[in-house]
Amino acid sequence: MSAESQLPRPADGSPAGIGAAPTGKAPSRLELQAEIEQSRAELGATIDALTTQLSPGYQARRATTAARTAAVDAGALLTGGGMPAGDERRARNVKVLLGSVAVLAAVVVLNVVAGRRARR
C-alpha cells in the first residue's frame, strides 16, 4: 500500500496529493520553480542566522558585552546614577552582578574567619 493510496481522495475524484492550487488553476512550472528558489533562499538565510547565533565566538562576544554593560551600570548605581531606566534586562544584570559580588565577599569573609579560628 503506497502513501498516496492512504490519503483521502479529493471530492473531484482526482488522485490524492494532486489537484488545483487554491486559486483554482494549477501553478505553472515557472511559478513552482520561482517558489522553490524563494524557499531555498529563505531557508539559506535562516540557516546562516542560526549558525551565527550559535557560534561560540558570537556567544562569547555577547556575554562579554553584557558583562561590561552590567559592570558600567553597577558602577553608575553605586555612584548615585541609579538603575538603568527602560531596560529590564540591564537592570536584572546589575542586580545579578551585585548579588554575585556580595555572595563572593561573604564567602571570602567566612573563609578568613574560619581560617583564624582553626589557627587558635
UniProtKB/TrEMBL annotation:
Transmembrane segments: 96-114
Region (Disordered): 1-27
Database matches in InterPro entries: DUF3618
A Pfam family annotated for this UniProt entry: DUF3618
Key words of the record: Membrane, Transmembrane, Transmembrane helix
Keyword Membrane among UniProt keywords: yes
Domain of life: Bacteria
Name used for this protein in its record: DUF3618 domain-containing protein
